[in-house]
Amino acid sequence: MDAESEKLTVFFEGPFWVGVFERISGGKLSACKVTFGTEPKDCEVWAFILKHYYELKFSPAIETEVKQTADHPKRRQRSAKKQLQILGVGTKSQQALQMQREEMKTQRNQTSKEQRETEKRRQFDLKQQKRKAKHRGH
Predict the structure, then answer these.
(1) Which of 68, 63, 93, 70 is nearest to 1 (CA)?
(2) What is d(CA 75, CA 32) in angstroms, rounded to the nearest whole number?
(3) Which residues contact 50 (CB under 8 A, 6 or more apart)?
(4) Closest by Cα among 91, 14, 28 to 58
């Protein structure tokens, strides 16, 4: 049985509050980073999840180990306390976010290159039209 879980971690990073969504599905982890700005209240986070969750762009999935733990109340209480102690996100999530950044960077470079080439082509065609107009005669 494949374990599926989702987790949201909200923490203060620099001047902004940031939320990192982590999704584990089929032994693969993907993450998405969202900047909230000011410290969000619980109701604001919940409203954001309800309204914008399906618009989020998750990173490419990377392999991860899924640990099965017993579901005892004391263990859950200990793990919740431990998660509150941890600041930031895990290294797997950071790797996934880094992969997403690199993908976006290559995509952005590709589109800007295409735009430069089309602009160059347009300028060339404009020069050719001007040149032909000069030699056309009266």
Answers:
(1) 68
(2) 28
(3) none
(4) 28
Amino acid at 134: K
Residue of 127, 59, 53 whose CA lies nearest to 99: 59
40 vs 58: CA distance, rounded Å: 21
Half-sphere exposure of 94 (CA within 13 A, CB side): 4
Structure tokens at 43: 């109701």
The pLDDT tens digits for 25-62 are 888 888 888 888 888 898 999 999 999 889 888 888 88
- Tell me how far apart the alpha carbons of residues 60 and 79 are, in angstroms, rounded to a whole number: 27
Question: What would the two tokens of residue 96 be?
Answer: 């996934």
